[in-house]
Write a structure and sequence with these properties.
By secondary structure, the protein is of the alpha/beta class. The protein contains 11 helices and 8 strands. The chain has a single domain, classed as P-loop containing nucleotide triphosphate hydrolases (Rossmann fold, 3-Layer(aba) Sandwich), CATH 3.40.50. Helix 3 (27-40) crosses helix 4 (62-74).
Length: 232
């Protein structure tokens, strides 16, 4: 795989969808705060510090959803980290174009330390770990002992971590991470994801012994009525 070439115009378009930061009093932002609250109350016995979000197929608006959720957690004065764990088709850097480091792949290859790979954003309390250079073997790296070590270090450092992962129907990456994060969420795009695809995606998460918290239904046109969080 080749590294994607960033298009400045595309970056502006992606960052402009960060509605929770640009217009925190909007109905859209309020809906994301509602999702945040639902996630927090999904467990009464244990704080859900690490959340994985995946989808059954591409083009579901997953990365924008991850980024907006990360913002509302940061606005709660939590030290929040958004991890681009999609090392096949990274998107987080399009939303935060100033985030520049060797990223997750650099950490997994032992080329940098956590403090060198994590980037502070212009949003208070929000940090980003870009995917880094696209490796030839993402699944092997994400399933390694090194990944577990990195996860434990990040878990100790941050109050909230959100992992943006590839579509679970296409690759096993989300299943590998779902095995040790506190909770996993499936994102479903209206008029795009079939019931059968959603069912198979949930089955894959459950087969990895993931703690499935529920689903987020959305429309990438970002109509206020089209964001909804449902428990699994």
């Amino acid at each position: 795989m080749k590294n994607f070439k960033r298009n400045k115009k595309e970056d502006v378009q992606e960052s402009s969808k960060l509605i929770t930061n640009l217009d925190p009093r909007s109905p859209y932002a309020e809906l994301f705060r509602g999702i945040r609250t639902s996630i927090e109350y999904s467990s009464v016995d244990q704080a859900l510090k690490s959340i994985l979000i995946t989808s059954s197929e591409p083009n579901s608006g997953k990365s924008i959803t991850c980024a907006n959720l990360a913002v509302v957690f940061a606005q709660q004065n939590k030290k929040t980290l958004l991890v681009d764990a999609d090392m096949r088709k990274p998107t987080v850097k399009k939303i935060f174009p100033k985030a520049s480091s060797k990223g997750l792949s650099g950490l997994l290859a032992n080329k940098v330390k956590v403090e060198e790979a994590v980037c502070k954003t212009e949003i208070e309390n929000l940090y980003v770990l870009p995917a880094g250079v696209i490796p030839p073997n993402p699944a092997e790296l994400l399933g390694s002992n090194r990944m577990k070590q990195i996860y434990e270090e990040l878990y100790a450092e941050f109050d909230q971590i959100i992992f943006d992962t590839p579509p679970i129907q296409l690759v096993v990456d989300a299943q590998l991470l779902g095995n040790f994060v506190d909770g996993s969420i499936l994102l479903v795009r209206r008029d795009h994801t079939t019931k059968e695809a959603s069912k198979k995606a949930l089955e894959k998460l459950q087969s990895a012994r993931a703690n499935v918290l529920g689903s987020i239904f959305n429309d990438t046109k970002m109509k206020a009525s089209d964001y909804y969080y449902g428990e699994g």
